[in-house]
Amino acid sequence: MEITDRKNGSVRRAKGGMITMPFIFANEICEKLAVVGFGANMISYLTLQLNLPLTKAANTLTNFSGTASLTPLLGAFISDAYAGRFWTITIASIIYQIGMICLTISAILPKLRPPPCKGDGQVCQEANSGQLAILYVSLLLTAIGSGGIRPCVVAFGADQFDEKDPKQATATWKFFNWYYFCMGVSMLVAVTVVVYIQDNVGWGWGLGIPTVAMALSIIAFIVGYPLYRNLDPAGSPFTRLVQVSVAAFRKRNLPMVSDPKLLYENQDLDAPISVAGKLLHSKHMTFLDKAAIVTAEDGIKSSSTPNLWKLNTVHRVEELKSIIRMGPIWAAGILLITAYAQQGTFSLQQAKTMDRHLTKSFEIPAGSMSVFTLTSMLATIIFYDRIFVPLTRKLTGTERGISFLTRMGIGFAISVLATFVAGFVEIKRKQVALESGLLDKPHAIIPISAFWLIPQYCLHGIAEAFMSIGHLEFFYDQSPESMRSTAMALFWMAISVGNYISTLLVSLVHKFSQKPDGSNWLPNNNLNRGKLEYFYWLITMLQVGNLIYYLFCARLYTFKPIQVHSTAQDYVEEHEDVELKTHV
């Protein structure tokens, strides 16, 4: 889009838009290539290269994952409050790069690893404290770096489409589709090509390739700086939320005003946090409205800026309401991640006991079965963008075809079907094991094709294409504009909590399904003697309850009430004179 300056007649290009996408996607693709490429095979690196005991290696992975799931909140806070998204992504990417370089160097230089274990019965020498220190520092740097990249990249990409421009306002849903598509392609390459290189060529190359790719992505991202639409940080969003809560509590005994128009508003005060539009008063959670009731003690006549711990504007009150309204929908996404997490645990264990040969000489690794999830997810994204949306657009008359809430609901329903089908596949697997006399041979390969698992893997991929992308759209669209990086951090936190719930659920089922004879739904040693199908159907029932809960929440959900500052004509006239205030 070109803009003519009335003052001198010069033509300049408006910042943002689709032209910025290659630079932004390059950063995300390489970050995922590095994270997944190393994480998918990390247990092998720790046990085979550093000779760590399995328990210690597993604890290292758990600690790393826990840290990496918390840092997005810190990165989002820094971005929204102080640094802005561009500089947060840039600095975080450099920190991540340093961590990857340290890991790669440790994989190349023999002195930074213990001597290789020959496997002839000798006691393997475990990595010493210095070698472990390099590992831990490297992992910490990558965790800090990903904490700045994950919550900011997707919000920064969506920021490139101006909500006040009618030509760009509906482009964000396409961005979320292609963002997730690029992320999926990167993960697919990581779990196939990168993992193959690590196992068959060497860890130096296996870590060096993602490291070089990350360096190139940083360069590409910085080169795109003149094209970006950069939104200025608007101060600590958490402070504003606390201020509204404190003000409402202080005035809890005041009677509500008869007319919402009497509540306090200050456009100059709210200007930095309402660039795209002002939040309007909503009828819900009226107890928070008391934070905007003007009293004689507030002294607003003597000062244009009130004490925000005593008096807040309607816009700031509605920011807190928006976050609270999002909570139930956020919680609904957790259980889908819990169901999805089983692919890396019990579905993988099923695959290990099944025939995975494509030909007589080639066998699919059990860990690569997730390829079917990723390919089905990518195919669904293309189908959704190119076929599903144009068809539904004709029926609904809306640009995006269906709302993000409807999209999420479809994903929840398909996820229910995925775990339901998985239970029947497990029954079939054990039936073949019984008929083959292999029920008591846990390490034997049962004569049943692992392709029986493809339906459950593919259904999970389709569910993610609907639900997870809808979840991203929901967080970006419904969060206050000054808290969008924080909202993206909540998306990643839902993933983290979903995995923790999976761990808790497995532990509880293992404990309470234990019988006096030692049998168990989820036995440690012989999956053939377990009742994994019961576990899958337990998750199915939980998901059915979660789907009902979600439909109830979606039915009652109140969309963020916003008044856009400019109409289409206003937008053009505004940009003929000056650049957007939000540009750096």
Automatic annotation (TrEMBL):
Localization annotation: Membrane
Stretches that traverse the bilayer: 86-109, 133-157, 178-197, 203-228, 323-342, 362-384, 404-425, 445-466, 487-509, 534-552
One Pfam family here: PTR2
InterPro entries, sorted: MFS_trans_sf, POT_fam
Keyword Transmembrane helix: yes
Keyword Transmembrane helix included in the entry's annotation: yes
Gene Ontology MF, one: transmembrane transporter activity
Keywords of the record: Membrane, Transmembrane, Transmembrane helix
GO cellular component: membrane
Membrane topology designation: Multi-pass membrane protein
Similarity-based family: Belongs to the major facilitator superfamily. Proton-dependent oligopeptide transporter (POT/PTR) (TC 2.A.17) family. Belongs to the major facilitator superfamily. Phosphate:H(+) symporter (TC 2.A.1.9) family.
Name used for this protein in its record: Major facilitator superfamily (MFS) profile domain-containing protein
Source lineage: Eukaryota, Viridiplantae, Streptophyta, Embryophyta, Tracheophyta
